[in-house]
Specification:
This protein is of the alpha+beta class and 290 residues long. It has 2 domains: 125 residues, 3-layer Sandwich (Rieske Iron-sulfur Protein); 113 residues, no CATH class. The chain is 17% helix and 29% strand. The chain is built from 8 helices and 17 strands. A hairpin with a 6-residue loop joins β8 and β9. The longest helix is centred in the N-terminal third of the chain and has 12 residues. The radius of gyration is 22 Å and the shape is globular. The two termini are 19 Å apart. About 2% of the residues have low confidence.
Length: 290
């Protein structure tokens, strides 16, 4: 339980600002509030349209194919992303309405989803159609017991989910990022690998460090040699920030594909998703769970 009011006491002038009080990084109650008020009310990156979903008749399937699904977790909440038979991408809570068992595990290709506990069965548009041995239960109405839906939208090949059905659209969060990221080669972008790093710290510690370039001269000497550090800039917008610095030299191919001539170009969408472009062909996407 939070014993003190959640007053941030942040000075509007960045030159006068101080780090948040330590309790914002250590109090479990504050973390629970952040999950509720931040992570479950903002757009969270959960996967890509090339997300593997198994095989059908020897052919590999992804979430771009009809009747496919994959599962994920956002702020300790299990979710499921599905592509129904009509090709619509949807997201739901991966918690059965009966006894909170998992509706699906991992990923795969199915035309219905069956709870792993009591076998309640749901269509890929969220309707409950199978409830073994409860037909005679009085006042039971299947139509009111479907999977709990979440908002699901995409930008390029990236899939975002928002628990808040009244939240602003993803486009409002991204702002000018689609235009600013026009140098990214999305058409040829392919999934290379996934790396998970378990860091024993509060999520804000990681994000705080990721959002500043102050550490570059010491921690990233290779990058320091490429960029004009004196021109390093951070621009803030309503839902995201952008960091970039010009490179010291640029070849013709990079100049054509990345017109802003940035070597270090990073955008972070609140609270945790980041998109990065460095010199050459390096492109990366990632995020912090909590």
């Amino acid at each position: 339980m939070v014993t003190k009011p959640l007053h941030l006491d942040v000075h509007e002038q960045i030159e006068c600002a101080q780090t948040l009080a330590s309790r914002f990084y250590t109090d479990p109650a504050i973390l629970e509030i952040e999950k509720s008020r931040i992570f479950r009310r903002t757009w969270q990156l959960v996967g890509t349209l090339s997300q593997a979903c198994g095989e059908v008749n020897g052919g590999k399937r992804t979430i771009s194919d009809p009747e496919s699904f994959f599962t994920a977790d956002v702020a300790d909440e299990p979710i499921i992303v599905v592509r129904d038979k009509q090709g619509e991408l949807r997201a739901f809570s991966n918690v059965c309405r009966h006894r909170a068992g998992p509706i699906a595990l991992g990923s795969g290709c199915k035309n219905v989803l069956r709870c792993q506990y009591h076998g309640w069965t749901y269509t890929l548009d969220g309707r409950l159609i199978g409830t073994p041995d409860v037909e005679d239960v009085e006042f039971f109405d299947r139509s009111t017991m479907g999977m709990v839906p979440f908002r699901c939208e995409t930008w390029e090949k990236f899939i975002f989910v928002n628990f808040d059905l009244k939240a602003e659209p993803l486009a409002a969060y991204l702002g000018q990022i689609p235009q600013q990221a026009r140098g990214f080669q999305f058409d040829g972008l392919q999934f290379a690998e996934r790396r998970d790093y378990v860091i024993d710290c509060n999520w804000k510690v990681y994000v705080d460090n990721y959002l500043e370039g102050y550490h570059i001269p010491i921690a990233h000497p290779g990058l320091m040699k490429e960029i004009d550090y004196a021109q390093y800039r951070t621009d803030t917008f309503r839902f995201y920030s952008q960091q970039f610095a010009p490179i010291r030299a640029m070849n013709e191919s990079d100049r054509a594909s990345f017109p802003r001539k940035d070597a270090h170009n990073l955008r972070v969408v609140f609270p945790r998703s980041h998109l990065e472009k460095k010199s050459g062909a390096h492109q990366a996407l990632g995020g912090v769970q909590r």
